[in-house]
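>> received
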Amino acid sequence: MAVLTQTARVQRDQRYETPMYGVSEAELYLRVPVMTLGYWLTGKGNVPPIIDLASKEPKRLSFMNLLECHMLSAMRSLYRLRLPKIRSALRSLSTGDYARRLPHPLVQIRFLTDGVNLLIHEMDRLVDLSRHGQLAIPQVMEAYLQRIEVDQEGLLQFYPFVMSKRPDEPKFIVISPRISFGKPVVAGTGISTAVIASRFNARESVTDLAREYGLEERQIEEAIRWETRAAA
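>> returned
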C-alpha cells in the first residue's frame, strides 16, 4: 500500500487548497526556473500539465500545488527522472484504485525510485508505475520528502531550501498556509522573514534582532539569507 502523507485534517482545511501563490513567487520559494514551472503547470501544445493548478485564471498555486512542484523538482534534480516516466506513473495512478482519493499524488504517495522509474509498495511488493504496473526489483531509494513534515496537529508544513538542495540543509524557514497567510516565517514562530530582513537592511544588527525576538543569531541570519536570495 502506498504511504499517504496528507492527513484527514489537511483534507478538511480549505487553506491548503486556496490559490495563494503566483508562479513568480513559487519560483522564489522552490528555486525552480519560472519557465520550467510554467511547463509543469500549464503544459505546452498538445502536452498537458503535470500539476492541476488551483486557479488557472489568474495562474495561482495552492499550498498543495507548491508541495507538488517541490516533489517534482526533487524527482528531476535529485534522481534525474524523466518527465515521460513521471507522466506515465501518474497516469497509472489516475486509472487505478487511487484515482478517486488522491488529488495530489506527488505529495500524498511516498514514491520509491531506482533512478529510472517510479515505484510504490502495494500488497508487500514493489510495483513499477512507469512500466504500467510491472513488478520491480527492490533496489530503490525512498522518495525525497524530508522537507515536508506533519506537525503535532496532523497538518502539513514545508521547509524550503535556502542555499542548496541538500537533505542536510537546515530547517530554519517554514511555509504553512496556517501561518502568516502562507508566507515564509522562522520555524517555530510566526515571525516573518521579510520583516527581519527589512529591519536588518535598516541597519539593525543580527545580535539586537536575535535578542528582541528571542531567537538564536543563526536563525536571524538564515531569515536574512532567505530574503536576500529571494531578492536576487
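>> Residues 38 and 44 are 9 Å apart (CA to CA).
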